[in-house]
Amino acid sequence: MNLEIETFPCGPIATNAYLVIDPETRQALIVDAPPESADVLQEGARDRGVRISLVVITHTHWDHIVDAARLRRETGAPLAAHPLAVPRLEGPRPPLGDPSFAIEPLSPDRLLEDGDTVELGRWRFHVIHTPGHASEQISLFEPAARVLFGGDTLFAGGYGRIDLPGASVVQTVATMRRLLELPDDVTVYPGHGQPTTIGRERPWMIQVASSSPA
Ligand SMILES: [Zn+2]
Q1: Would you call 148 helix, strand, or coil by DSSP?
Q2: How close is the Cα of 1 to the center of ligand 1, in Å?
Q3: Looking at beta carbons, which pairs linking 43-50 to residues 24 or more positions away fall under 8 Å?
Q4: DSSP bridge partners of 8
Q5: Ligand 1 mean position, distance from CA 92 (Å)
Q6: Which of 3, 38, 81, 200 is the most exposed place for a label (fewest CB within 10 A)?
Q7: Ligand 1 centroid – CA 182 distance (Å)
Q8: Backbone angles phi and psi of 126, in degrees to 5
Q9: pLDDT confidence of residue 63
Q10: Rounded distance, CA 6 to CA 4, Å?
């Protein structure tokens, strides 16, 4: 039985939270915790009779982490992120222009580095460090299911913006080179918008990868 992937666009800029379900064990992992996602994700899990076993944060921009502390508290599931995410999870910055929009700090329970794996039933998600849009950004790649959860690494038609603090065009180029190694039929589930595939995005990724921004 295949993985079941439910998408919940949440918050003011429709950030995708994903509920990734292993139908055999009825376990699920969550990818990202946007504003107003805690209730819908837990309802989604209840409706489908699944237990949330892990919450993975792709990167620490506010629109991906606002509900992280609540989700961890209410589900009891551990929270995982890259080591470089720790300072921004423990000392989150409010979104620009709105200091009243406080984000509850938290420390991750598990650190995910490049080359680590996240297990869900028989599935093995490979952690790929994909900096560029954010230095701490990770993607989860499941080679058998041929899916990639990339946060804001890669969208339909382009990469995540690099005009933000912590972003790097040099790292973005290196990350695109790395993701070009994935097969065409890998479906990419991004942090915003509709899914795409590596094959569909490959032409512009090749252009970016062959540029030398340094
Ligand atoms: Zn972002």
Answers
A1: strand
A2: 32
A3: 44/6, 44/8, 44/19, 45/19, 45/75, 48/4, 48/6, 48/19, 48/21, 50/19, 50/21, 50/26
A4: 17
A5: 14
A6: 200
A7: 22
A8: -85, 130
A9: 94
A10: 7
- Decide if pLDDT at 213 tops 70: no
| Residues 194-206: tens digit of each pLDDT | 999 999 999 999 9
- Give residue 118 CA to ligand 1 midpoint distance, Å: 22
Orientation of helix 68-75 relative to helix 38-47, angle to 10°: 40
Global pTM reads 0.96
Closest CA to 79 of 68, 90, 67: 68
What is the sign of the dihedral through the CA atoms of 86, 127, 194 and 135? positive
DSSP reduced 3-state for 115: coil
Mind listing the domains of the chain with CATH numbers? Answer: 4-209 (3.60.15.10)
Give the integer Cα–Cα distance in Å for 20 and 120.
Answer: 9
Whether the CB-CB separation of 80 and 108 falls below 8 Å is answered with yes
Phi, psi of 94 (to 5 degrees): -65, 155
d(CA 118, CA 115): 10
Token pair of 176 as six digits = 């695109």
Helices (H), 37-168: 38-47, 62-65, 68-75, 86-90
Q: What is the mean pLDDT of the chain?
A: 95
Give the C-alpha separation, 120 to 136, whole Å.
23
| Tokens matching residue 30 | 């969550």
CB-proximal residues (5 Å) to ion ligand 1: 61, 152
Find the 136 Cα to ligand 1 centroid distance in Å. Answer: 10
